[in-house]
Amino acid sequence: MSVPAPSLAPARPPASSPLLEVRDLHAYYGQSHVLHGVNLQVHPGEVVSLIGRNGAGKSTTLKSIMGVLRSRTGQIVFDGQDITRLPSHRIAARGLAWVPEERAILSTLSVRENLELPPARPGGWTTARTYEAFPVLRERGHHPGSKLSGGEQQMLAMVRVLRSGPRLLLLDEPSEGLAPVIVQNIGRIIQELQQEGLSVLLVEQNLNFATRLADRHYVFVDGQIVDEVRRDEVEARRGELLKYLSV
Ligand SMILES: Nc1ncnc2c1ncn2[C@@H]1O[C@H](COP(=O)(O)OP(=O)(O)OP(=O)(O)O)[C@@H](O)[C@H]1O
Description:
globular, 9 helices, Rossmann fold, 26% strand, AAA+_ATPase, alpha/beta, single chain, four-stranded antiparallel beta sheet, ATP binding, 10 strands
């Protein structure tokens, strides 16, 4: 997997106030208590990754932030406002966009219909930008969503949410199951988005992909964050990070 290497400069110093702050988050599926006091921050323009083994609670954290999983306690603050009790659509309207692991595109609609259904908002991706970044989506314009490859589905799912011009993008395993060249392309787009000031919270199992892109990493074990690693610490601590991910 090769994403163009970003500069070797240390992680940018976080701005004084975080764009997203998650405080003492607990989450539940029925009787099952799966997040145990998660605290994390994402600063404006930062790319932050959540890494950890399967079942550690990373996706649940994204679902809790978006308000898709309602059975949770703690506080989620976005741009200084408490959004914990808002319904998901109002959370999205504040500028958070989530691409779930299953990529949530409309399988019976064509690529073009999938692209055009979400309303484009000021600052969001236009159709022209979409085709410039991912020309394959123009070529596949009339194909139904169900007939796309995994990579094409990931591109389409990302573009659908980028049309709304979000300020924070939540990506759940964007590299999962994709060919190296597609992973590289998606990595390049994430870097471009960061350069434009977008913040990204990225769930990843692919350590190479995560460490190339993210300024900071939170390590999840059994529903808790047990470690935090900055970009400039990654090389010295790569062995520990691999151990956290190994089964
Ligand atoms: N819909 C659900 N109902 C019940 N338990 C769930 C549900 N979704 C996830 N879990 C459980 O919650 C825990 C955290 O899962 P989560 O999906 O957040 O982990 P993850 O770190 O994202 O890993 P993965 O890569 O496997 O998704 C796991 O024990 C999982 O089995």
